[in-house]
TrEMBL record, chains A, B, C, D:
Substrate binds at H242, R281, Y351. It comes from the Eukaryota. It comes from Ditylum brightwellii. Residues 67-226 form the Oxo-4-hydroxy-4-carboxy-5-ureidoimidazoline decarboxylase domain. This is Parahox neighbor.
């Protein structure tokens, strides 16, 4: 019988191995928009990708009911080589009313983030310095924590051309010389383009501004690690939609809509077809809620051409807008995502609504 | 040696047969968004789809230099069973200055459309009545012109469920009883959903309003027939782009963009990668011009996530906007299509610009 | 003691006289954007503008409880010289279930409009022909109904320059010759620019299309006459707002908003100040509802500069957006008007929402 | 004969006195949106507001041709009590190629800003600490430089209610305790609402983030001081417009537009009327350029109702959109401001374009 993972260290090691495998697999199998395109699909690990099944992960309340040692061991790697954050967090749990303890992954994250933000400048600088240098060869990973290797393996740095590598090395050296800490980028769903674009933009920042930006990346990494490490049984978040016809000044009734999940790959696929009601909304409430509301990348397809064919708006033979895809990411399992469409036969817009 | 097509009648017959084949083929092979989705890909016929090669088709000036009989034979089927339109058009060519003769497919279309619009009400009503009844079984096509069978075969009426068929029959009967002419829909790139949505919306129109709407469909059919029947050597139209960063109030410089053609299927595929210049525009002029500027369906992909990673805007772990697709149709080979993106990390919009 | 108005004929006569006075007064006193600008303020008559006070007007249920003669007398002038509409409407009241009788001004309007739309083509053409010719001198009003004189007096045709007059006369003659009925424009809140712009655009229409457009104007006039003729005790309509920050992807909380009524002039003025709640909405429900929800022109002012000063978005010395006015009209007392703002420091949009 | 101002110190003193007078005057005379509203009009000083006439101010090249002492004296107060910035700037002038010397106010500002950004953390902190405490009574201005008193007098802190004053004092104390430097806000065109909104939002920032935000305010103040202190003979900036009809997918041709300047008050007023050409643009190039292109607040009025009356779009009696105002600020005399309108009868949007 296969032995299950027991400790957080083993957990993160498994995470690393599986994600490396996944990366290669997804590069081999993912549909390419073009040959130069690296996969955008996120690798938030789930049951299929490593041995610690979703059921074995603790929920946030489960985790916070454990012993001091367990909590610190489990959360100690969320901030790179900085288990003092987990320690202070555990301490704060003791001194506050138990009703104030975090109940969701978002609340847990905010509590830990707040500890970092309120720490001394020196502690924060130390935290930044604890991060591995992205520029060092991907094969020499010895001084990384396991968790950071997971993110790094996805950066596609292996696919850098020699020109790109030279440019990146030069920018990376300039960066370290100017700021005194390594370039940090939350890279789980990024490509080499993201990395180069980001370092190019950020190397010009004022020192104090880049300190803030780098810490923002550290928090983003912490958030992604937390999301991967806990089980979310009944997320409060949900996804809604609304279609307004800006040519006729009314809700777009009877418009067909499809929803697909594009990532994570193991749960990607068609989700459902909807037809808007007389108020331009989905007739049976949220498109996603509860366990269906997963962090990932989604895409609506709005059948705009069919809709306007039922109105008297003049359309061209090949309509300017026919099937309108709207691709968006869901990052926080506890929030409401309202992703509407404002559309005429000649224009459309969308936004993160509420 | 294979005998080439000689007469317009043969041409349209070939067009019909090839499109039916294409329809079945594309249904079998096209990637499906979902099992209930019919293909959205247009079937504007080209070299690969029927025997009359693009080179054999006349340009508009070529055509207008032919004999009266040839011109009328070639254009007589553009408006269904109404060669009087072609005849009057030919007459107008004789009486006007030769410099006023149409030089492009758009000008030719406008001239013929104007003749229809200025005709008597009775002539227009007759034109509407000349159209086949969409509701009659697709196999009983005997009283159709060949050209109309081509459009009709794409409506996917064969895929109607029995409920849908009953609904459609009932709507179609109500339509004919109310308006006195058959339901007409320019269906080359439509599905059964388009047909049902359209007849449901239009059956409620006031009689005079529906007359105008139906004639609009007739013009659209004429336009698509013209486009399929002439060669366009050097279209004046072109495609441009512009990206504005509405979070920072500046052009979005150094944003990667991909352009793909989604249809017609025989020329579908990746076209090019661009990187915006300091004004947020494509660095080497139009993305498409000349013979590359074809009627069809296109898709930009804007790498918005990479762009904002180079600014100091705070992004989430899974960004709300990362790769942003914008799908749009080009219908007129003589026009400028400006399809820009206005984007913040949390919203975007596009429109047909100029 | 002052004698009150008793009959609808007297009512419309009073309406005419008062509006003419109001027109001159408002031209003399209204604040001008520029010397060439005619007043945009609507003249929906109220207590102050003519002798029939709002209290004396019947509500829709009041009116429909009256005798056949009263109903037809009261509604007979809604469609110009076409009391048959009112007669058929009264007939329909008798034959249908009493619960189906219109209860609101919108329902009453829809019922009468439907009667017109379903009438024979000849009846509709007659209705169009019954309208006075806008081009005839404003002083020779002898063959107009009183109600149409009211709308016409507001067109500002008296302010046409001789060039404009010549252009208008020529367009008007071309219009009548082409279409066989006079040019009709619902002009209560229009200026000479509206009139010229409209006739220039519409004279090029296909005959059948212009018939539909002209009938649309007739319905609009009917709607405005109905609104002026009945009392609306407790309208179902209401006004709401929502502000979304598209730079930061969240509701714009704690944004100050002002609401003003710009017209009708007798109730114009500052209405209220609001501060958005954490969801970016007005904290105590609709901004306008019940008797405060009046047909007219309104303006939000959003204090966008102050809002972004509380975020860390970089603003310029003179911000691109500081106080953002959004001016909009409310036309239907029975509908929900949702007029939101989507805003970044560098862009904004609004729309009629739901 | 009136003695002219000779030294920068006198200049700033004059600026202070005149602006205080202007503040009171503008409070007395400016049109109020409501009684609670403080004036939004900026007070960029011009000929009318203080004795140093625009002609007497140096252009940037004039200024940089002066002696070292003059340059440092003139620019020494741009950054509060920190003439080292002007000194280092002068030094950089000596060491670089003369062609690299700033020629415009924007280039001069960027050069000085760069010196500050690249200075040591201690120097920057000192600069922040040099700023006066907004909370101290406005009458006790003894330790302020003259220039900062000018900005401060406009904050409308005199109009704080006692509740607001208590809240502000408490926030201000919390701010100083947390960050170790006084709350700084570029307040020339701000009200007490701006001040309260800003301090409430910023007091919650992480220490390092607020350092960056405060320095941003310092740069903004420097920019406004520079703008007030130099003459701009022939600014490169200009203002353009473009109107797109998103309901019909075309440029909005023949739309009337008005342009007004709302501030500075001494040059406020109606500027011009335009009518868009067939591409939806102003027919004779930029609306503002050269000396007409002044920093200030502007407002377009788009006559959208008249435009759509010429199309066949159905409008309501009181149109949802009729006269559409778009209010925007111009901050940089060297930049292109493109302020377009995308509009349907039921929606519109605008943005800072390029």
């Amino acid at each position: 019988m296969r032995r299950r993972i027991q400790t957080p260290k083993e957990y993160y090691a498994a995470l690393l191995i599986c994600c490396l495998v996944l990366t290669i697999t997804s590069i081999l199998h993912s549909p390419k928009v073009s040959s130069t395109k690296a996969p955008f699909i996120t690798t938030i690990p789930t049951r299929k990708t490593f041995n610690m099944s979703s059921e074995e992960k603790p929920t946030v309340p489960d985790l916070l009911n454990r012993s001091k040692e367990d909590i610190i061991a489990y959360l100690g790697g969320i901030y790179e080589h900085s288990s003092w954050v987990a320690e202070q967090f555990h301490e704060s749990l003791q001194t506050q009313n138990s009703t104030a303890a975090p109940k969701t992954v978002s609340e847990l994250f905010r509590a830990m983030k707040e500890i970092v933000n309120n720490a001394s400048h020196e502690s924060k600088l130390e935290l930044l310095k604890n991060h591995p240098d992205l520029c060092e060869k991907i094969e020499r990973l010895s001084n990384l924590t396991e968790a950071s290797r997971v993110e790094q393996s996805r950066a596609g740095l292996g696919s850098l051309t020699s020109d790109e590598r030279a440019k990146f090395t030069s920018l990376n050296n300039a960066y370290k010389a100017k700021f005194g800490f390594p370039f940090i980028l939350a890279v789980r769903n990024a490509t080499k383009y993201t990395v180069l674009s980001s370092i190019e933009g950020r190397v010009g920042n004022m020192v104090e501004a880049e300190f803030v930006a780098a810490l923002g990346q550290v928090h983003k990494i912490a958030w992604m690690r937390l999301l991967a490490g806990v089980r979310i049984d009944n997320p409060a978040g949900f996804l809604t939609c609304h279609v307004l016809d800006t040519a006729n000044g009314c809700p777009a009734a009877n418009m067909r809509i499809h929803l697909k999940r594009l990532s994570p790959p193991e749960s990607a696929g068609f989700i459902a077809e909807y037809k808007t009601n007389s108020d331009g909304r989905l007739p049976s409430g949220p498109a996603l809620k509860g366990t269906d509301f997963q962090v990932g990348v989604y895409e609506w397809t709005f059948f705009v051409g069919d809709y306007f064919a039922s109105k008297n708006n003049e359309l061209t033979g090949t309509p300017f807008l026919d099937e309108v895809p709207i691709r968006f990411g869901i990052d926080d399992p506890e929030e409401h995502y309202h992703v509407p469409l404002l559309v005429s036969p000649w224009s459309f817009s969308t936004y993160r609504g509420s």
